[in-house]
Structures are given as C-alpha cells and as structure tokens.
C-alpha cells in the first residue's frame, strides 16, 4: 500500500494520498514507480498535504517536482507536515 507519492526522485517532500497519523510507519513511491521510500510520520499529515522525506534546515530551498517550491521558515524534521506554516514561496519575495 502506498501512503504518499513523490513526483521525482530527489524531491524533499511527498504528497499524502490519505490522512496519515503521527507515529505511523508509511510507504511511498515515485509517480513513475521506480523509487520507494519508507519513514515514520512525526506529525499528522492531512490528505493532499506534504510530508518531509528528509530533514530540511531553516532557510533551505524545498524541492518538489524537481523544482524549488519555496524555502523552509523553520527546521523541518523527516516525517513532518510541510505546508504554509513552515515553508514560504520565493516567487513573491
């Protein structure tokens, strides 16, 4: 069973395909099915929201779709919920 999808190998985040609860051991795959991931959720992740695939440092650029989608406004732990509360767009400064 896949709990989250990753657009491209090398992305920093995956997208939950169901509600994920804190403490769950979850599994993911790239959309093309070539790469697999396994991690523990350290926070609840709502359906459609992002989960960190690795630790992300404050100020670090966050990658999804193989592209920079923003910068971390706080340190983000592997398995944490990634959303507007801890990343900001670089598009509008």
Write a structural description.
This protein is an all-beta fold. The chain has one domain (4-88): Archaeosine Trna-guanine Transglycosylase, Chain: A, domain 4 (Roll), CATH 2.30.130.110. Helices cover 0% and strands 38% of the residues. It has strands spanning 4-6, 13-16, 25-30, 36-40, 50-52, 61-64, 67-72, 81-82, 87-88. A 6-stranded mixed sheet has the order 4-3-1-2-5-8, with no helix packed on it. A hairpin with a 2-residue loop joins strand 6 (61-64) and strand 7. The protein starts with a strand and ends in a 5-residue tail after the last strand.
- Main sheet specs: 6 strands, mixed
* Head-to-tail CA distance between termini: 39 Å
| CATH architect. name | Roll
Rg calc: 12 Å
Helix content: under 10%
**Shape label:** globular
Overall mean confidence score, pLDDT = 96
Q: Give the number of domains.
A: 1
The computed structural class is mainly beta
Total helical segments = 0
Number of strands: 9
Low-confidence stretches at least 5 residues in length (pLDDT < 50)? Answer: none
CATH topology: the name is Archaeosine Trna-guanine Transglycosylase, Chain: A, domain 4
Secondary-structure element order, N to C: EEEEEEEEE
Beta percentage is: 35-45%
Task: Please specify the SSE layout and strand pairing.
Elements: E1 4-6, E2 13-16, E3 25-30, E4 36-40, E5 50-52, E6 61-64, E7 67-72, E8 81-82, E9 87-88
Parallel strand pairs: 1-3
Antiparallel strand pairs: 1-2, 2-5, 3-4, 5-8, 6-7, 7-9
Top keywords for this entry?
single chain, mainly beta, Archaeosine Trna-guanine Transglycosylase, Chain: A, domain 4, 6-stranded mixed beta sheet, 3-stranded antiparallel beta sheet, 0% helix, globular
